[in-house]
TrEMBL record:
It comes from the Bacteria. Residues 13-132 form the Thioredoxin domain. Pfam families: Thioredoxin. This is Thioredoxin domain-containing protein.
C-alpha cells in the first residue's frame, strides 16, 4: 500500500505489507482524535477512520475490506467520513487523496495511516498494533 505524497503523519512501513506507523506531527506528540472530531464515538478497543469521497471507487473497496476485518474484532469501530464534508479535519490530517485510512488506538492516537486500498492482512496487522 502506498502512502499519500506529502503526508506528514506517515512513517516508513514496519514490515512488508504493514500500514505505516504514525509519527509525531506536532512537537512532543502524535495526532490524537476525539469523538468530537469524528462525530462518532471511539471504539472500546480501536477505531478505523476512513476518509472517502462520493465518486471514489477504491473507497468502496476499502469499506468492504475494513468491514470484513472488523467482523472478528469486537470493540473496534469503523467511521467513514466524506472528506468534502470534513474539510478542516482533512486539512489538519493532511489528507491529500481518498481513500485515506487511519487506525486509532483506544485513546484516539493515530497508530497507522495509509492512502489507497489496504489488504485484509494490512488492516488486521494495523489493528493488532493499535490494540496491543
Amino acid at each position: 500500500m502506498s502512502t499519500a505524497p506529502g503526508a506528514g503523519a506517515v512513517g516508513a512501513p514496519q514490515a512488508p505489507g504493514d500500514l505505516p506507523r504514525a509519527v509525531a506531527t506536532a512537537p512532543g506528540g502524535v495526532v490524537v482524535l476525539a469523538a468530537e472530531d469524528l462525530g462518532a464515538a471511539l471504539g472500546a478497543r480501536a477505531t478505523v477512520v476512513q476518509f472517502s469521497s462520493t465518486f471514489c471507487t477504491p473507497c468502496r473497496r476499502t469499506r468492504l475490506v475494513v468491514e470484513h476485518a472488523l467482523r472478528s474484532e469486537p470493540g473496534v469501530v469503523h467511521v467513514e467520513l466524506d472528506v468534502a464534508d470534513h474539510l478542516a479535519l482533512g486539512e489538519r490530517l493532511d489528507v491529500t487523496s481518498t481513500p485515506t485510512v487511519l487506525v486509532l488506538d483506544v485513546r484516539g492516537r493515530v497508530r497507522r495511516r495509509a492512502a489507497g486500498v489496504p489488504t485484509l492482512a494490512q488492516v488486521r496487522a494495523a489493528l493488532a498494533d493499535a490494540t496491543a
